[in-house]
Amino acid sequence: KSLYGLKQAPRAWFERFSTQLLHMGFQASLADSSLFILHHGSLVVYLLVYVDDIVITGNNPKFLDSLVAQLSQAFELKDLGPLHYFLGLQITRSSKGLFLTQTKYAQDLLLKLQMQSSKPARSPCAPHLRLVPNEGSLLSNPHEYRSLVGSLHYLTFTRPDLSFVVHQVCQFMSFPTDVHLTAAKRILRYITGTLHFGILLQPGPISLSAFSDLDW
Predict the structure, then answer these.
(1) How much is the pLDDT for 2?
(2) Which residue, 140, 149, 158, 206, has most beta carbons within 10 Å?
(3) Which residue intervals of the chain are DSSP H helices?
(4) Among 102, 92, 107, which Cα is nearest to 154's?
(5) CA distance 188 to 54
(6) How many CB atoms lie within 10 A of CB 152?
(7) Which residues contact 109 (CB under 8 A, 6 or more apart)?
């Protein structure tokens, strides 16, 4: 009741929860206000919070169990076990690693826009696509376009193959036209045939590699 009943309740809840974490030795991440890190010697623990949904991971399973027990003394918690679904992200474990997808999120988006039966496209955009601001007729309801593009942008978390074209259609949020909408729907048609695409995270050397083309 206190969390959902008042407009300022989520802020008060986050302040209380974060204060408890800081008291337990966690440090708030400067890059993400929802991320808390505990680093003590060889022990590393990451805790991610979104309102009242929490994800905890670390390199010491016994400590994680004791951490959950400590939090349970201060808050009413329900341990849902290994992570499988979080904010539209689906996590599948295998011997190869972690496979991250947003299949259900994409299916719900297609169903919402009644495009679940549309003919799949082989690519997310037409060859040599170049969108410009004033091409086509302005949409009578730009809110629908903004909602669609925002949903597509969330999909790029596990679909880097969509990043380029999604960022293109994002440039016309203020005054979208029917041409821009057609380009956005082309992305949906591509998603129809690639629902199970995602990112496979595998164990390996912790090193950062960067790639660029000849013109940088």
Answers:
(1) 58
(2) 149
(3) 2-5, 9-23, 61-74, 103-112, 142-155, 163-170, 178-192
(4) 102
(5) 31
(6) 23
(7) 151, 152, 155, 188, 191
Please name the residue ranges forming H helices in 31-162. 61-74, 103-112, 142-155
Residues with Cβ within 8 Å of 149's Cβ and at least 6 positions away in sequence, in order, are 166, 169, 170, 173, 184
CA atoms of 198 and 157, how far apart (whole Å): 9
Q: Which band of pLDDT confidence, cut at 50, 70 and 90, is reported for residue 1?
A: low
For the sheet with 53-58, list strands across it. 27-28, 35-40, 43-50, 53-58
Residue 214 reports pLDDT greater than 80:
no
Distance in angstroms between the alpha carbons of the first and the last residue of the chain: 53
What is the identity of the amino acid at 84?
A: H
